[in-house]
## 1
Amino acid sequence: MTEKPTVAFAKFAAPKKGSVIVLAPEGGQLGEAAAAADPAGILPRIFTTAEFKGKLAASIEALAPQGTDYDRLAVIGTGKPDALNEQGWLQIGGAAAAAAKNATEVTVIADIAGLEPSARDIANIGLGILLRAYSFDKYKTKKDENGGKPSRNKQVRFTIQCADPNAAKKAFAAASAVADGVYLARDLVNEPANVLGPVEFAGRAEELAQLGIEIEVLTEKEMRRLGMGALLGVAQGSVRPPRLVVMRWNGGKGKQKPVAFVGKGVVFDTGGISIKPAGGMEDMKGDMAGAAAVVGLMHALAARKARVNAVGLIGLVENMPDGNAQRPGDIVTSMSGQTIEVINTDAEGRLMLADVLWYCKEEYKPQFMVNLATLTGAIIVALGNAHAGLFSNDDTLAERLTAAGLATGEKVWRMPLGSEYDKLIDTKNADMKNTGGRNAGSITAAQFLKRFVDETPWAHLDVAGTAMASPSSDINQSWASGFGVRLLDRLVADHYEG
Ligand code: BES
Ligand code: MN
Ligand code: ZN
């Protein structure tokens, strides 16, 4: 993978080498420090000839400006300064990382005419740089189009010049921990399934022990003893055995009940005996994006020493067709005791989550449970790539998630639950069936999960449209977005710490 760039902070000073990036608001006026970096005064002319308007995250560049020691000067637009919000700062950072191109030494002069950015704003430029700079190139062995080795071999050093570098550095420490969590989630989702099976995935989660997270890995035998017939039914068609990983971060007060995060980790979803069509099936290596987000989140919470007790649980299985695979019509008994008729073996995520949610609730009696899952194609039909589906039995939790989504840009949209939908998964052969027919596919999936959470405040995020294959943006160029890490880190930071 690309080396994560370093981001340092410094006071305003004339840059001597590398690439220099200045910021300009809509209209193009340069701040004092920005103008000082352009001694020959070439920028105003470039603005005119290139019709640069200073729109948010737009950029323009000049090579080796006269009278300077550095190689390249780029300008990033900030839009209207009073309209700049958190995402705007992230986008500016993203645009700066893009404008840096192949430079290894980059100075960003965060001086904007008519604006006094806060330490947090500056830190968000840094976070935007990190998020944009990520790329998954570990399997590229050939030289890239610039004749260089794959970009992972060089580390880019960013220095952000600002009014109060010490304050910015402090604010950036937490942001950098969150970026590490996003990188981890993206790496896991991008990794192909031949490399990352359930056992290997569990191994990656175990590495979080280095951060002070307690890890427990349940094997097939232990899950059988617990009666997890729904999860095990999905796993039985694969030669690779399932795992259930529990990650515990105890950063809060001793007896505070934990907050809980649960992830769907289907390392590959062929559909099983109800096999998927071949076109695009390769994307199903990402069917563990919910679990990856939980691992990334736990990393972020521990790395920034969040003052919260949090548990993360991920169910890791592979959904394969073989001689031992479960069949449509099979009836399995979940850990809750409820029986399920398997109508479609491709509706496997809900089967696995049924047991993990129940186990989480019984074992940890959490304040709330939020699960993330690439659960249904139907959520992509409903919401596209711009929002994850949110389903919840608790209005407060739903509102907090919605607010965290708007703040971070990892947006969620609440969908309905109700008895009319719930009855669509009744069946005469068992307590419920695992599909509800063609209509309202994302809602019936959520109704199914709801039968395994009892009274626990709970939210289900269907991230099938947001965690993978979403269009690239100013802050993400990777197939896997890491969706959920920043959202849930914010939920915790705003409401459940201290
Ligand atoms: N993993 C898929 C959902 C999915 C689809 C994720 C596209 C990401 C992109 C899930 O296990 C699945 O197969 N769902 C079925 C449910 C159906 C059989 C009721 C679906 O959405 O078609
Ligand atoms: Mn499936
Ligand atoms: Zn799936």
Note: The CA atoms of residues 277 and 455 lie 38 Å apart.
## 2
Amino acid sequence: MSWQFFLLDLTIIFRRETFQMNKDSVIYVAGHRGLVGGAIYRHLQKTGFTNLVTRTHSELDLTNQAAVYSFFSQIKPEYVFLAAAKVGGIHANDTCSGQFIRDNLLIQTNIIDAAYRSAAKKLLFLGSSCIYPKLSPQPIKEEYLLTGILEPTNEAYAIAKIAGIKMLESYRKQYGFNGISLMPTNLYGPGDNFDLQTSHVLPALIRKFHEAKLAGRPEVVVWGSGKPRREFLFSDDLADAAVFLMCNYAESGIINVGVGIDLSIAELAEIVGNVVGYQGKIIYDSTKPDGTPRKLLDISRLESLGWRARTSLPEGIARAYHWYLENKN
Ligand code: GFB
């Protein structure tokens, strides 16, 4: 392993310049098959970046440090979008917290350290709005991080993500490594997970209403009380924000990425039912957890940089439903 470290350390000396991403820059998108990584990969392709590097899970196990180091010393990416993670909705987080904290700590630690050692010019790390305290004042400002207790159902995942944020802050402070941390709100879109046990609410409702419509079921069960409020950002908009921030943001502090408005789960269910064309009843299963009552992000820092989301919720849901219909089999 020491010769790899030596090689990597050598490159650090010769490659520490700061450039804008060029169209032929070597760009590694970790997690390119996921909801977020897939959107970032498509956006980079569309905007003319020609030197994109990806690896599937079977090609590269990101929880394996030696494999990650070997990959980075061979490819030496200049820019890294760290979109690979173990993710899931409230039920998955609540029941698989051991996997969530282990996999996410390993993935992010391996990639951040290897990116630094191979002298990557910049790394973009994706957190989540669940890193903020359960009862934060709303809308949530970046400075509210670590000011209160976390939502128990996703505390393990949140602590892993907070560790990633702190690792990048520390690598910037100790080594001058240029890593930035984005905190997106709840995301949805093409390539989402539609499994009813592990998914987030929006794709789960798309599938539930669709299957109920086809089967002519009189009602659809929605988890919890329907009272919690959530903010939703279409994945293609997040991808646009990620590329924008990779090119225009280089601060140590985290930056929220959202749309600035939220709605209740009950209101969301009505919208999804209308888009899908379901006419039956909606009933609520109070045995399922509500989770955080609200997590609307304050996006004034992002807006001050000149970025805003473009996709409305009904349009985004329609596009996500279309993707589901095309890919559900
Ligand atoms: O999207 P979701 O699973 O995650 O749940 P969180 C949001 C709200 O929707 C909760 C309700 O109040 C759920 O009870 N809900 C209603 C449903 N019906 C359903 C359903 O059929 N499936 C699901 N999944 N929810 C996640 C965190 O929290 O937010 C993750 O656990 C991550 O770590 C993600 O941070 C962004 O928004 O509550």
Note: Residues 21-191+231-260+296-311 form a domain with the Rossmann fold fold (CATH 3.40.50.720).
